[in-house]
Amino acid sequence: MKERFAASLARSQSGSKTALSNSLRRSQVASDQEKAHFTQKEGREYRPEPHQVLFGDYTKEWMKTIYPSFGSPTKRNDYREAIETRILPYFKSFTFYQLTGTTVFKFTESLVRLKGQDKGKQLSTARKVNLLIPFRAIWNDACDHYRWPLKSPFDNLKKKLPKTEKKEHTVIRLPDWLKFLDNLEEHYRPIAEIMIFTGMIASELGGLKREDIQGDYINVRSSYVLGEEKKSLKTAFRKRQIFITQAMRERLQTILNRSSSPYVFNMEDGKRFNSSRFSKIWRKAVLLAGIPYVTSYSARHSFAAWSLIIGVNPLRLVSLMGHASKQMVYEVYGNYVEGLEDDAEEMLDYFGKDFVLPRKRISPVPLRDSTGDSQLNSILSTGIL
What we know:
Elements: H1 2-41, H2 55-65, H3 73-91, H4 101-109, H5 125-146, H6 157-160, H7 174-183, H8 189-198, H9 202-207, E1 213-214, E2 217-220, E3 223-225, E4 228-230, E5 240-243, H10 246-257, H11 275-289, H12 298-309, H13 314-321, H14 326-333, H15 344-351, H16 353-356, H17 377-382
Antiparallel strand pairs: 1-2, 2-5, 3-4
Helix pairs in contact: 3-5, 7-11, 8-10, 8-12
């Protein structure tokens, strides 16, 4: 009897607490509504305080109003993924008053890989910083909207995060590249070769139209990302002209002859070239070839490294890749790759001599490779150009 009475009393007290909590919440809402009502009657704008606004509630509204204004489909996709899978699950019940540097730092400490062989391991600092970008955007917009003079929880946060070494970009050795091609589905071989001959990335291939090939040049003008056409590329410098060598022309002719599509590159089923689908096909070929794992973006880095090894003018390489200055070429692609120089002669044959010297006007100054020895004396002496 005593036990039943105690249990009944506990339920009664629990119910009373819940009722009281709900009552206080309704009272707070009513109070806020009354404040807003009378503030508007007085001709003033009602602004709730940071402790009165839940991050989750504001973010839901932000996704409806501000998020759709981002023009880049890539940016929208990245923001949505970060917000829905990482930020909202952690912070939806926080008020903006509770968002401090300490709480945000604790959030970064909780960020681990959610799947794959590294599941449970901490994300890299670079990845953590990227996930904070949409978080910061929501915070800034809320402070601007409500005119809150709050200290940003993101100030000096980067200094607290552990420093990680920059990930080296993978460069493919020529023998490995040829093994990869042997294991790549036949339809995609000339497409992959155009990537390594030009430094173009998959999204740029998807945006290339027949009309963009004029005479001896490919005009890179647009890209195709997540099913959307983009007239603006990553930077203004990415809009560029690429000289068509004999090796490129042969592959392009094969590609153009097998389709009447207005787009140069297409999937085997005739649909427009899709970078996500292509990456799966690429991965399959890498695994079959048994070479060190590389992504399709590695073709761009390999193009740059190979070009420097066979003596391409670095200033010309800047233009071919769509960079603003040669500093990027040297900092990102200029690192020494063990054994790559052993492939120089074969790489020159593979690219073709007209890639190194595409025009008859030759400047004698920059035609030296990274070792300082002239790679092109033999080419110049043949007189074939």
